[in-house]
Design goal:
The chain is an alpha/beta fold. It contains 14 helices and twelve strands.
Length: about 350
């Protein structure tokens, strides 16, 4: 197809890249080729996004998870990457607390002729298209909508029939232990930082409560969370900690009756596959921006707690009250509310038909 070669950049985490999905699809509809530029944490998510022709990984020195010295070698590495991709323009996607200008400067130095982004600071010659957060870009937009606004300002819109929801490609095959289940709930106990974690003891009690109800539980997590998932699964849950690829995890989430998860990347993956979500959401970041972007979500957690909007990685309040005050019965009641809402939406029960949303 005709159209520019476009580099879309989202340099931070797995979940950050997932919520850029609608913006990527908008760019893809008007581009001849889309390169997704990601950091190491986000690249596995980019592999799942429709519309991406190629994923390139670059660890930005100013991103917390990839911080490294900036020197001539880093600059040459970046220039070489851009030279290989030959973009006609770049769309830099950032969250409300991030600046596109460091990357815009490198893109300019690498010869990219057109760069778009959202910047509070005056960009000078670094941006050709600039949205001003708080002025022509509202502050309280969900992150997928914010990214889509940036893409639209650059001249890219979703195609007709695309509702702007999160979407991913995923595997069709389930692990045999999961495929054999008629119904199941997914409990994902891990989180990227401790301040966003529901206590491990609460997770274990939840799995036990589901067992008493006769509901199978699949416990998921990354390879680094295997000790946590084993503890939470106990003798009754199916422990998949470290045993699924991102696409495989998406398949497991897609067939779940409900997913219980904190504010972490798999919450956005659950949203992208249409799973009903009990969101254990710490208010260290605003739910209006970062809650799972999906129609079937029950948000739990004290959103007015003292840690509100602190962006803390370690809980700054003794006892972690924003989430520790959420009990097992609160989750079970939220589960039941989700099923009731889902049944009204699709006109039949999800309890006996995990394929209903696939």
């Amino acid at each position: 197809m005709t159209g520019p070669r476009v580099l879309v950049a989202r340099l931070d985490s797995f979940g950050d890249v997932l919520v850029a999905g609608p913006a990527v699809r908008a760019v893809a509809d008007g581009a001849s080729h889309v390169t997704m530029l990601c950091g190491p944490q986000g690249a596995p998510a980019a592999d799942l996004l429709p519309g991406v022709d190629r994923v390139r990984v670059w660890a930005a020195p100013w991103v917390t998870e990839t911080a490294r010295p900036i020197d001539d070698a880093v600059l040459e590495e970046f220039r070489a990457l851009v030279a290989e991709e030959r973009p006609d323009e770049a769309v830099v996607l950032t969250s409300f607390h991030q600046s596109p200008l460091p990357l815009a400067l490198l893109l300019r130095l690498a010869g990219v002729p057109r760069v778009s982004g959202a910047s509070v600071d005056h960009p000078g010659s670094l941006l050709d298209v600039r949205l001003r957060p708080g002025e022509d870009l509202p502050e309280d937009l969900p992150e997928p909508e914010r990214a889509l606004r940036i893409a639209e300002a650059a001249g890219f819109r979703l195609p007709a029939g695309d509702d702007g929801r999160l979407v991913v490609r995923h595997d069709d095959d389930l692990p045999p232990s999961v495929a054999a289940l008629g119904r199941y709930v997914v409990v994902h106990p891990g989180a990227s930082v401790p301040a966003r974690s529901w206590p491990e003891s609460h997770h274990r009690a939840l799995v036990a409560a589901y067992a008493e109800r006769g509901v199978p539980v699949v416990v998921t997590g990354s390879p680094g969370e295997r000790a946590l998932t084993a503890s939470v699964a106990g003798d009754t849950g199916i422990d998949l900690g470290g045993r699924t690829s991102p696409a495989g995890l998406a398949a497991v989430l897609a067939r779940a009756e409900v997913v219980v998860v904190g504010n972490t990347g798999p919450a956005h993956l659950a949203a992208a596959v249409g799973a009903p979500i009990v969101s254990l959401f710490s208010p260290v970041v605003p739910a209006v921006k970062w809650a799972p972007y999906a129609p079937l979500v029950e948000l739990l957690g004290d959103q007015t707690a003292p840690c509100r909007l602190s962006r803390a990685r370690e809980c700054p309040v003794a006892g972690h009250p924003c989430l520790s005050g959420v009990g097992v019965e609160d989750v079970l009641q939220a589960h039941d509310r989700l099923l009731h809402r889902a049944e009204r939406m699709i006109g039949r029960s999800l309890r006996d038909s995990p394929e209903g949303r696939a």
